Amino acid sequence: MENNSQKRDMLLILNRGFGIITTNKIKMVVYMKLSTRSRYGVKILLEIALADSETSAGENSPVTVKNIAERQKISEKYLSKLIIALKGAGLIKSYRGTNGGYLLSRSPSEINMLEVVKTLEGDLLISEMPESDKYCPVENMWEGLRSVMEKHLKNITLNDLLEDYKKHNTQAITFEI
After folding, report:
1. pTM of the model
2. Count of alpha carbons within 13 Å of 37, Cβ hemisphere only?
């Protein structure tokens, strides 16, 4: 099981595009820039999870694109494109009408960050190496790094982000409907 320090390291990489990964074998600085698709996609899911966690039991209130765009200062047009991908992957569901918007399709503890990143970015590629029948230690090194990153992302759930946010942000979260 990953410890909190390792999860925090991976959260830094998701948020800033770089960070330090420490495993029981190695410590390495990783410079990997994920596109805004992943970073904003995670923020969309977190906003929806936050809104859901602030409502009373059984009173799920869908979150609108406009609401997320205003809170995150991201264009509604761009968010709409990401929401289409998240909805297509079954991570969120939409509701129409005057009280319409988006809710999570599953519990935050059932959504891991590897699923989100792969939905929005495709497979993680650290380095593209030419295919060869010969063993290549450099290619093997990059494959090992990709494997470590995927393991980290798989072990971070949306619920982990939600709890981390609540722990560090004591202000009440308000959502307009």
Report:
1. 0.72
2. 14
